[in-house]
Write a structure and sequence with these properties.
Elements (H helix, E strand, L loop, with lengths): L6 E5 L3 E5 L4 E6 L4 E2 L2 E2 L7 H16 L7 E4 L5 E5 L2 E2 L2 E8 L2 H10 L1 E2 L2 E2 L9 E7 L2 E2 L11 H8 L1 H23 L3 E12 L5 E4 L8 E5 L15 H10 L12 H19 L3 H6 L7
Antiparallel strand pairs: 1-2, 2-3, 3-7, 4-5, 6-7, 8-14, 9-12, 9-13, 9-14, 10-11, 14-15, 14-16
Helix pairs in contact: 1-6, 3-4, 5-6
This protein binds ligand Q0Z.
Length: about 290
């Protein structure tokens, strides 16, 4: 009765979700890559395995802060069985640096999600302290930053205070850890759900390059956009092609595929200190 067919339950840009039974889902990270919001026709071999391993690594290390949905990391190293939760209808974003929509909001308003920020900040500047900037979940297109009041209307005041406190604590732990390995965590997007007992549970993917901005610390320079740890070769290639960033995206040459794959594996090995080959041999290595 527990080995029935998995039922496809949803597709993300680069991930697939299946229902296993009433209590469990299967989350599969593919090798698809998106840039400028478009999924490219060329996969990056092992990208899904890198992201699944990193998520597992962080779930194991943060379980003292908050319980998470991970049940089983499968031998294919790209799929996980997870607890089926009641997901909260907000994205929990924490920003330590001014990038992306936080930087856009700041230029327009001097604030983001209601956080008044000091004058004179430049793109990629470090914020005086990390801030919680919740966003709506857009089915299509871009998530929209919302105030904490608007977020409280969606999930309730008490739950919002809990996810804000936990999100900030997770960001602080992971950014300190990454800093010791030469990687800056500029910002991150977290998702939470409630289990059957009403307990808050960290879900989805966590602290991967697809859900976070990882910057190489050695080239950090405020006042300009920072190179992405993982996708910079892809972005540079697309920019020099002159592609208009509407679908379909361009096919990637082998040199860009190989360079990008190397960057994902480098991020994995720098953060986890586990050789990627050892992870493929036994995925559970990252959980201890
Ligand atoms: C995650 C998503 C993906 C498409 C639903 N533990 C959970 N319980 C209930 N729902 C979810 C989770 Cl992770 C859940 N998503 C995002 C992932 C493909 C959408 F792989 N949607």
């Amino acid at each position: 009765m527990s080995d029935g067919a998995a039922v496809h339950a949803g597709s993300g840009k680069v991930r697939e979700l299946f229902g296993l039974d009433e209590d469990r889902l299967l989350l599969v990270a593919t090798d698809r890559i998106s840039t400028f919001d478009v999924v490219l026709p060329t996969p990056i071999p092992d990208k899904g395995r890198v992201l699944t391993g990193l998520s597992g690594f962080w779930f194991a290390r943060t379980s003292q802060i908050v319980p998470n949905h991970l049940l089983v990391l499968r031998p294919d190293a790209r799929s996980t069985e997870v607890r089926r939760l009641e997901m909260l209808p907000i994205e929990c974003v924490v920003r330590g640096y001014l990038a992306g929509s936080g930087w856009k909001d700041y230029q327009r308003l001097g604030s983001t999600s209601g956080h008044e920020l000091p004058e004179g900040l430049v793109e990629s500047d470090r914020l005086p302290e990390p801030i919680f900037t919740p966003a709506t979940k857009a089915a299509e297109g871009h998530d929209e930053n919302i105030s904490r009041e608007a977020a409280a209307d969606l999930v309730g005041r008490e739950l919002l205070e809990d996810v804000e406190r936990i999100s900030l604590e997770l960001y602080s732990y992971v950014s300190d850890y990454a800093a010791t390995r030469g990687i800056m965590l500029a910002d991150t997007k977290l998702e939470f759900g409630l289990d059957g007992a009403g307990t808050l549970v960290l879900a989805d993917e966590a602290f991967t390059p697809d859900s976070s901005r990882f910057w190489p610390a050695d080239s950090y320079e405020p006042g300009r956009p920072q190179p992405s740890f993982d996708k910079q070769y892809v972005r540079d290639f697309c920019e020099q092609l002159g592609w208009d960033k509407t679908p379909p995206g361009p096919e990637l040459p082998q040199s860009v595929v190989e360079g990008t794959r190397s960057r994902y594996i480098e991020a994995f090995e720098r953060l986890t200190a586990v050789p990627f080959a050892a992870y493929l041999d036994d995925p559970n290595t990252v959980l201890s």
